[in-house]
Amino acid sequence: MRFFIGDKEKQLVKRLHSGEKTAMKDFYALYADYLTGVCARYIDNDDDLKDVLQDSFIKVFTHIREFHYRGAGSLQAWATRIVVNRSLTFLKEQRRNGFATLDLDVADEKETEDPPIRDIPPEAIHQMVRELPAGYRTVFNLYVFENKSHQEIADLLGIKRDSSASQLHRAKNMLAQKIEKYNTTNQPR
């Protein structure tokens, strides 16, 4: 019998709730690549990424009984939220320890036009985002991928709303420059 993803997910949740050990393994097989990608949007160091991802999986498995299935995709959305929150907590701890900065005071720059990206592989764009400074990358990801407002970002990161907007603007400009460079370097001759 063929299951749709919603049916598989619903069955997986039941198995996880019942404490079935193979369910954890199946959860990992189903979501590890996706959640690694989510984490990599925020954490640029591979060793730190592994640590944050491991902490996220531990949190998922220790809190799975608190999760209530709400339809297809709800388990993935819940796990994604955990990964994003663990990533933000890690970045805040790094900032407190003086290892990372959120580039709080950013001078305004002139807006650049969005360069074409249709011929750029997703992995290349993902890498460009990972290369952004931590503050720009964090704000960009929260705004673009998590659909957070600048006020929500400011509240999450402990920065001013205007700082969030400035960092997003700066991130977009840096990405536009990286894309332009990629397009120039990789044009067919």
Give the key terms:
189 residues; mainly alpha; Rna Polymerase Sigma Factor, Chain: A; Arc Repressor Mutant, subunit A; 2 domains; globular
Topology:
Elements (H helix, E strand, L loop, with lengths): L4 H13 L3 H22 L3 H18 L10 H23 L25 H9 L3 H11 L5 H8 L3 H25 L4
Helix pairs in contact: 1-2, 2-3, 2-4, 3-4, 6-8, 7-8
Can you describe what's shown?
The chain is an all-alpha fold. The chain folds into two domains: 2-97, RNA polymerase sigma factor, region 2, helix turn helix motif (Rna Polymerase Sigma Factor, Chain: A, Orthogonal Bundle); 122-186, Winged helix-like DNA-binding domain superfamily/Winged helix DNA-binding domain (Arc Repressor Mutant, subunit A). 68% of the residues lie in helices and 0% in strands. The chain is built from eight helices and no strands. The protein has helices at residues 5-17, 21-42, 46-63, 74-96, 122-130, 134-144, 150-157, 161-185. Helix 1 (5-17) crosses helix 2, helix 2 crosses helix 4 (74-96) and helix 6 crosses helix 8 (161-185). The chain is globular and about 55 Å long.
Global shape: globular
Mean pLDDT, as a whole number?
86
Q: In the CATH scheme, what's the topology name of the largest domain?
A: Rna Polymerase Sigma Factor, Chain: A
Strand content: under 5%
If classified by CATH, what would the architecture of the largest domain be?
Answer: Orthogonal Bundle
Q: Which structural class fits the helix and strand makeup? A: mainly alpha
As a whole number of angstroms, the C-alpha radius of gyration is 19 Å
- The total tally of domains equals 2
Family: Belongs to the sigma-70 factor family. ECF subfamily.
Keywords: Sigma factor, Transcription, Transcription regulation
GO molecular function, one term: DNA binding
Protein name: Sigma-70 region 2
